[in-house]
Give the backbone structure.
Amino acid sequence: MAYSQQTLARRLELARQLTSAYTRTGDFVDLQFSGPGRSLQIPFPSQLAPVPSTGAVRDPALPLPTADIVVLTYTSDEGKALADVMTPGRFEQDWNHYTNNYASLLPMIRRGAPARQAGRLGSYWTTQVGTRKVLVFKSELHLHQDFIIQNGHPTLPIRALFGQIIQQVQPRHFFCIGTAGGTLLDKPLGTVAMSRAVKFDCKKDFANEPYAKQASPYTSDWNVPLEQHATALALMKPFAANLIIQHDGPFSTCPCGSLRQQEGQPPDVFSLIDGQDGTPASFPVLTTDYFEFGTDSNGLQNDGIAVEMDDAVLGLVTSTLPHPPRWASIRNYSDPAINGTLAERAQEHCASHIYMRYGYWTSVLGAIATWSIIAGL
């Protein structure tokens, strides 16, 4: 869908606001759980529960330790959810900071970007799932947050970060996870969509970059284990109570007709893995350079399984490696497809407010889905 330059500029600024926002606990629909940063008490199967390492915090300038699997996420809500699921008792604010090679990337990062404000590239911890050592990482770099124009092209420091993580950790699998706009019209808030294909769908500052103009998706060819899929759905289901759309506050006048759930009722938990439910294995997650979301009229459901703002960079990086890790993009619908008959700003208001209010709890579901894949490897 074509947008005016004014709309794209507004949506870039909205993207920057949303991905740099910190959790406000009062925004959550807090029914039976204690909330972010507390124990979720997930009853994982014995021998497969995540067990975080207990070592001391490391020097942030050190390279990353080796691990079998990397799980990387981006925003504050996503980091909290990943920590609460995968490193219980060792929450995101307690993770190691990571500054290795930070100074060399700093000239590529704009003033005011999260990485400059935080003074680091990210934070990480290690955890064990069965026999697999997992490094969980919260990035402070983002495609749309960091770039400045150099020699007529936007910088892409997150590309260097992905390469650095792979070089240092030497993982066999690499998963990017987190919030996304829903594109499939019949899937509710909280749907978890996974794909082994990613594709740039840039319309602003990155639109003319060669990698962003590539017509075919970047893909990773491997078989996803589904042995723990049913278990994951059962573990997700109790948290659906935190995804009830309450028509109050910012939603009191929301006329969005495509939320597709009865007011006051939790959505059906649904986890969609590529190649399942009739979707092709090459149906990609879309990466944009501005805040985008599916609607029931913009046709994004024909292009991809979800829309977000970073993961195609991993596909780009791994496409240049002789022996890349197997990878996937695992994305939870933090806002479902929006009513396309609304005015542009009303659509943006609806999508962004749902994202802010429910991003943490949808990310809990995404982290559980990621656990299930790791547990099956």
